[in-house]
Amino acid sequence: MKFNWGTGIVLAFIGFISFILYFVISMTVNKKYEHDLVTENYYGQELEFENELHKQRHAQTLEKDLFWTHTEEGLVITFPESMTPSDIKGKVFLYRPSNKQLDFESTISLSNHNLLIPDKSLLGGRWNIKVDWQYKEDSYIFKRDITY
């Protein structure tokens, strides 16, 4: 067989296509490159976005916002002193961007102005915290990216 320009071009195309197929197959099979969506119900949460904006604007009218501290027992979320703790209802959602199996939700039930999330529930690293609560007739939301 004689090696000419046509044969060289065909071999170059076959080599290039093989190279591309190798990387496509290795990227789809390798678990290291597997990424999930941020949330399972992305479009449903997009519809709730306007409601969250209203809650955030309402939370900005508070004299004192929520704040969190890291203690030996865990993460302590402190609600405003001007609110009666028994009238505060809602949920706390902690989202771990690196591992969705660590995400969890907890209901708010307070006897004082502090809510404790135990240290055993949290690993060190980045967390997104979302506190969605109601006080009497008003709804509020608190969102922060924290490093625990």
From TrEMBL:
Stated name of the protein: FixH family protein
Keywords assigned by UniProt, alphabetized: Membrane, Transmembrane, Transmembrane helix
InterPro entries cross-referenced by the UniProt entry: FixH (IPR008620)
Transmembrane annotation, as ranges: 6-25
Organism this protein belongs to: Gelidibacter salicanalis
